[in-house]
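Structure ticket #2291
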Amino acid sequence: MKVVTYNFMPIFDWTRTDLFHPLEDGSTALFYEKSRIQDDYREMADYILNNLNGMTFPGWEPERMAKLDELFEAYRPVTKEKLWENLKYFLEAVMPTCHETGIKMAIHQDDPPWDIFGIPRLLCDKESIGRFLHMVDDEYNCLCLCSGSLGANPKNNVADIVRAYCDRIAFAHIRNVRHYPNGDFTEASHRDCDGDTGILDIMKAYHDCGYTGYVRPDHGRHIWGEQCRPGYGLYDRALGIMYLWGCWDMLEKTEGNIDK
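Resolution: structure written out below.
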């Protein structure tokens, strides 16, 4: 199966306010401080661009960030409903080519799953995902279901969303986040007990649905002194994939699919 993953987040890609937030175990991780996402979008953009240590960052290309004021002005008249119309227009235009080439388009949810700096976000919860899938009801119009993006909002039950739309999920991004009472959140290890996303429940949902699509341990901590692109350390994601495999093996064993 060929899959192209994309997002439809205007101007900014996924948004964080601290790229190297210290955690209790001595590692660092991506962090979102709600109070800092107010009116000054340039302050956040400057912080990110000045702390990449010469590395690239998806969705934060310097040449595009240099045009932030122009981009915000261009999007000023774009309402949420207009953005839905634009997304539908794009999907209807691209679906014939998807059928010809056998490529499934898998949309990544907005991260975080709420409007930022007055910019509308669309793919935020179970209801909006349902609207997206029914808007262009085509088997090639699929999801890249990101547990971290959806899980940033504690009201979202990611396992329930997996069960509802499993047949349209082409790519699973499995990421863990921990919430704070004031609305802040931090990314965490993939272990269920280290966050609030419900990794074990999510894995069981995929297993119960007979999921056979692509999976990746999405994002992770920066551990053991690794110098890496923020959020994309090799070491913690390697630990993550083995943790997810362990969950899957136990689910298989529990159902008697592995010889005792």
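Closing remark: DSSP finds nine helices and nine strands in the chain.
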